[in-house]
């Protein structure tokens, strides 16, 4: 049983025999050391070496040891946050054994004690990241760091934790990584691994290669002027500066020899010669290639779309500029997409007025369904956001070169000092048209479960791909979400190193508006019914999206950790039936 206040869901699960062994496998299982052929020559991996001490806490001043409970205080399958005086740890009991790890998710600091413990891992209640309780290693995303692991000992029926004060305070651990051997020997115009795109997929790919001991050259290139940053924050926390949302500091890239070429656009890829040609004419030879270029936002097609003060939010500078221009002014947002709605929520208390224009009759209809969409719309209206539904923009009017009015096809004229466009996006794959890489009719790169394209040595990841989703019987889908991009990058890296790793992760996403979050797990495309438990008016609900008699996705608001619980059930290969949730 899962019992939640006012909601009781009984789920009977049957695990197919062949899936049981799969379940025990951890995607972070240590692989045997590999020798990797680079341009025909065998190279060994070299992990950055640290002196191995018999006592891991060689600086005794930095160590704290505390008795935290009696052995009988915790039942199997229970977690407890314990205080060691100078910091907290998460104490876990599973299968009769005690484990202690960091108590906060390294992604955004969620309390893991409120998460879900299942089969040797704990899943974050907010965004679904998973950590191995034995090692602390991250096993599903989002986020880049693992948890620190602490020593546990039992003496006279008491449980003691021994930990370094530094680790207790940091609450995160970066996995050990290799460095590049003899970087000075490289020809500037050739690299072993070239990564096009510096979002989550590209960065996780580079980091995974180094974690696995890969010690050859890695080059990432991006059209952006910044090192990789936390892109979801562009619409959720719009006045963040680039350095505040950087995923890794500059020093990190120097330390682990991950080269990043900023403001560099690839114009073409010659897969026969293994050469990427840049817009400025520069050419780079590669051995393995990852394409992780993401999406390009769609623009409006009406008169005046090129005007000043009309924005697609692509960069931190765009987001910062919109906030500055919108303060105490009139804002019109076109498109009730995730981006459009998050921007509207962020600007609602800063702008004089916020108007939202959308073709559908409720926001999020295709994604969350009509009833949830309507409840969200009501929350926005209560926060002074005005909706203009079932219409679109026919013209943007200017006065002295600046935006003044947005004219709708319904005839309504809206005052506007700033316009933000969030009407969807297309995959940024135009430069691959003549490459021979398989691209579908919508422009997505087609990959298999190992993130490989049809061209040997060429991988693709993130928002620009369609891949077989295990959850939906390996149907080829596009999942343009932050968590999935991380996992794509990891799987691509492991398969560049010939690990033969297939993707099996369950999609997990979230949106944040007016201090409230909707969490979502699964892939609900084509759902035919929604079963709602809880109270939509109170914004405290769970929505089960079903297709025939199977639950294909679940969304919740103010009902943690239900979505993380469902994620664990789906990740185990189990089916939730409609009758179980009705």
Automatic annotation (TrEMBL):
Main subcellular location: mitochondrion
One annotated Gene Ontology cellular component of this protein: mitochondrion
Sorted UniProt keywords: 2Fe-2S, Apoptosis, Electron transport, FAD, Flavoprotein, Iron, Iron-sulfur, Metal-binding, Mitochondrion, Oxidoreductase, Transport
Cellular localization per UniProt: Mitochondrion
GO molecular function: 2 iron, 2 sulfur cluster binding; metal ion binding; oxidoreductase activity, acting on NAD(P)H
Segments forming domain Rieske: 66-161
Family annotation (SUPFAM superfamilies): FAD/NAD(P)-binding domain, FAD/NAD-linked reductases, dimerisation (C-terminal) domain, ISP domain
Keyword check for Transferase: no
Name listed for the protein in its UniProt record: Apoptosis-inducing factor 3
Species this chain originates from: Pheucticus melanocephalus (Black-headed grosbeak)
Classification lineage: Eukaryota, Metazoa, Chordata, Craniata, Vertebrata
Gene name of this polypeptide: Aifm3
């Amino acid at each position: 049983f899962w019992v939640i206040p006012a909601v009781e869901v009984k789920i009977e699960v049957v695990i197919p025999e062949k899936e049981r062994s799969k379940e025990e496998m951890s995607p972070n299982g240590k692989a045997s050391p590999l020798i990797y052929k680079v341009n025909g020559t065998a190279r060994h991996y070299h992990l950055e070496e640290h002196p191995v001490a018999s006592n891991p806490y060689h600086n005794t001043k930095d160590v704290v040891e505390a008795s935290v409970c009696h052995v009988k205080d915790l039942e199997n399958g229970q977690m407890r946050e314990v205080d060691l005086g100078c910091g907290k740890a998460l104490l876990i009991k599973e299968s009769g054994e005690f484990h202690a790890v960091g108590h906060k998710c390294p992604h955004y600091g969620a309390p893991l004690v409120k998460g879900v413990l299942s089969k040797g891992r704990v899943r974050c209640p907010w965004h679904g990241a998973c950590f191995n309780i034995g090692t602390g290693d991250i096993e599903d995303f989002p986020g880049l760091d693992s948890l620190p692991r602490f020593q546990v000992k039992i003496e006279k029926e008491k449980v003691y934790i021994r930990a370094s004060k530094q680790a207790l305070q940091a609450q995160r651990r970066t996995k050990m990584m290799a460095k590049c051997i003899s970087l000075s020997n490289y020809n500037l115009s050739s690299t072993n691994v070239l990564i096009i795109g510096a979002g989550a997929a590209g960065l996780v790919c580079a980091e995974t290669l180094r974690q696995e001991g890969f010690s050859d050259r890695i080059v990432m290139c991006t059209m952006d002027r910044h090192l990789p940053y936390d892109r979801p924050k562009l619409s959720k926390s719009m006045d963040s500066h680039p350095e505040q949302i950087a995923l890794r500091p500059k020093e990190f890239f120097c330390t682990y020899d991950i080269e990043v070429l900023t403001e560099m656009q690839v114009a073409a890829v010659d897969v026969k010669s293994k050469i990427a040609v840049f817009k400025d004419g520069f050419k780079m030879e590669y051995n393995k290639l990852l394409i992780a270029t993401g999406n390009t936002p769609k623009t409006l097609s009406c008169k005046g779309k090129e005007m000043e003060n009309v924005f697609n939010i692509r960069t931190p500078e765009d987001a910062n500029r919109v906030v500055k221009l919108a303060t105490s002014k009139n804002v019109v947002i076109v498109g009730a997409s995730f981006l459009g709605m998050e921007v509207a929520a962020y600007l609602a208390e800063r702008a004089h007025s916020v108007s939202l224009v959308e073709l559908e009759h409720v926001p999020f209809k295709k994604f969350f369904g009509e009833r949830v969409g309507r409840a969200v719309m009501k929350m926005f209206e209560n926060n002074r956001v005005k909706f203009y539904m079932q219409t679109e923009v026919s013209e943007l009017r200017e006065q002295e070169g600046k935006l003044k009015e947005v004219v709708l096809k319904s005839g309504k004229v809206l005052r506007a000092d700033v316009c933000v466009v969030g009407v969807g996006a297309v995959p940024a794959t135009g430069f691959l048209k003549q490459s021979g890489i398989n691209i579908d009719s919508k422009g997505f790169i087609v990959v298999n479960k190992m993130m490989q394209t049809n061209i040997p040595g060429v991988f693709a990841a993130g928002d620009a791909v369609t891949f077989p989703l295990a959850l939906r019987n390996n149907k080829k889908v596009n999942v343009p979400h932050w968590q999935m991009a991380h996992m794509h990058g990891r799987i691509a890296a492991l398969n560049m190193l010939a690990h033969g790793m297939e993707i099996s992760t369950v999609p997990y996403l979230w949106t944040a508006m007016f201090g409230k979050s909707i969490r979502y797990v699964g892939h609900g495309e084509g759902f035919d019914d929604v079963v709602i438990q809880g109270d939509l008016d109170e914004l405290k609900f769970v929505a089960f999206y079903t297709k025939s008699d199977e639950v294909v996705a679940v969304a919740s608001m103010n009902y943690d950790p239900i979505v993380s619980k469902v994620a664990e059930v789906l990740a185990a290969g189990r089916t939730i039936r409609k009758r179980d949730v009705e």
